[in-house]
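Hi C.,

You asked whether I'd gotten around to modeling the 104-residue construct. I have! Everything is below, sequence then structure, no commentary in between.
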Amino acid sequence: MGPQKDPKKASYGNGSVTRTTTTSRKEKVVRYKECRRNHAANIGGYAVDGCTEFMASGEEGTTEAFICAACNCHRSFHKRVVEAEIETEADTDCDCSSISTSTR
């Protein structure tokens, strides 16, 4: 047998993944632009706040990262724009350590 490659270990909020084999795949670079939240919906009107770009309130990985610092709206109210697709290495075989709650 030849020399063994040391698998890369990545940790995610829903578990960790051990990469053993990689291939290339495309990942999207996404930005969130102007806020589209209708602040006058409850009175039957239409009014937006004028926020032109999403700015996260907190650090990546926290719940505050989904709230805009400029308009205090959730990120889902902002227009999603895919700017580019980047070729990256992707997992084809993984050892996921997350616990499944589904029953068979």
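If it helps when you're writing up: Residues 9-18 have pLDDT under 50 and may be disordered.

Thanks,
B.
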